[in-house]
């Protein structure tokens, strides 16, 4: 999970033939969009399925390199 594509282009299928298949968007989906529009959030849709968007907000606020507007 330490590569950008791990979160922002998550695997949507294990593979087709011998090619790994990923989502082809690099767009950031903030927790607010997940709550309002049910758009899957990279954090809770793949790795942290046992967490909710409130946890995502709190965790992202602790990251020093994240703009505050992106957290909401």
Give the biggest beta sheet: 2 strands, antiparallel
As a percent range, the share of helical residues equals: 40-55%
Strand order of the largest sheet: 1-2
How many DSSP E strands? 2
Total number of helices: 5
What is the 3D shape?
Answer: globular
Quaternary status: single chain
Rg, rounded, reads 13 Å
Instruction: Report, as a whole number of angstroms, the end-to-end distance.
Output: 22 Å
The stretches of 5 or more residues where confidence is low (pLDDT under 50) are none
User: What structural class is derived from the secondary structure elements?
Assistant: alpha+beta
Strand content: 5-15%
Write the layout of secondary structure elements.
Blueprint lengths: L3 H5 L2 E6 L2 E4 L8 H7 L4 H6 L5 H9 L6 H4 L1
Antiparallel strand pairs: 1-2
Helix pairs in contact: 2-4
Could you characterize what this model shows?
Strand 1 and strand 2 form a beta hairpin. The model has no long low-confidence stretch (mean pLDDT 75). The longest helix has 9 residues. The chain has 5 helices and 2 strands; from the N terminus they run H-E-E-H-H-H-H. With 72 residues, the protein is of the alpha+beta class. It is globular, with a radius of gyration of 13 Å. The two termini are 22 Å apart.
List keywords for this structure.
single chain, 72 residues, alpha+beta
How is this structure best summarized?
Helices cover 43% and strands 14% of the residues. By secondary structure, it is α+β, with helices and mostly antiparallel strands.
């Amino acid at each position: 999970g330490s590569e950008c594509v791990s979160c922002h282009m998550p695997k949507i299928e294990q593979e087709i033939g011998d090619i790994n298949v990923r989502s082809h968007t690099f767009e950031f989906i903030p927790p607010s969009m997940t709550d309002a529009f049910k758009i899957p959030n990279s954090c809770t849709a793949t790795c942290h399925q046992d967490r909710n968007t409130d946890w995502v907000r709190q965790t992202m606020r602790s990251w020093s390199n994240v703009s505050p507007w992106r957290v909401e």
